[in-house]
């Protein structure tokens, strides 16, 4: 059970080969632009989150199948995973 932290759109191509169903993925910074189409690139069983401040700053809406997190929830998510990988 790992948390993959993506901060650029290009980071998805590097991490998708190692993402497993038991993993979680959070989109932050510029990677939030991937939110509308993320499930076309990864398994729908993977839990996907987006950082609320980052998606709002880019004028995007959070898709219904992705949970938006504030900074405190982001820290809690990191603490809940034994391994966090930044891409």
From TrEMBL:
Superkingdom of origin: Bacteria
SUPFAM superfamilies: DsrEFH-like (SSF75169)
Pfam family, one: DsrH
Database matches in NCBIfam families: sulf_tusB_dsrH
Protein name per Swiss-Prot or TrEMBL: Sulfurtransferase complex subunit TusB
